[in-house]
Amino acid sequence: MSRWMAASRLGAFGEPTRDAVYSWLLDTLRIVALEDAQVCIFLMSLKDKCLEWQLGAEMVAACVGAGLVKLFPSADEGGCPNDETVLRRLFVSDPEQILSADAREANIWGCTYVIGTKECQRLLARHGFLECKTALILARVIDERLASGEVRSSDGAPIIDISPERAARLRALAEQSSQVEREAPLEVRRQAFVAELNAVLEAHSVVQNCVVQS
Is 70 strand, coil or helix? Predict the structure, then answer.
């Protein structure tokens, strides 16, 4: 077992192995790589079991620390102003308490959003796991907005990352991912992804200071 995984709460969770958790994390990263989602997506079930929420918090912290995802807290909806505060609250906020007196604390799981970074997209594309159709749709939307001059929001602020460069990058990543998917078997790609993901997390193991030791 790797140094990173030894620091996690997998032992307390029981059955899931590093490989099982990383396979689950692959599915989660594929969802958030190109579109934002509530951070509670990291609480999805794992092999028909409810993922222990502390483990979900550790996965969020690991991916943020490794530069694979970004958080978008909403202070107006009970969120926090920065990543450090969000992560600290995730580790002490049981999402099942959303209807209890601790609802404000638990609400951090619903009012914080997460989206994959460029590195996340590149990692997935290298192993043929990027959602190519979604990437191409986003590239087309960018083209359409650029053509219509729709590059600013209603308040006049520039829309983030609406550029020809981003559209070209998304198309290139989609092409790379599609080619890898055609050329390599699924299990080979999955194992290679797990190995690289582990290396990425190990390289950023300093962020695991926030992980609860088992």
Answer: strand
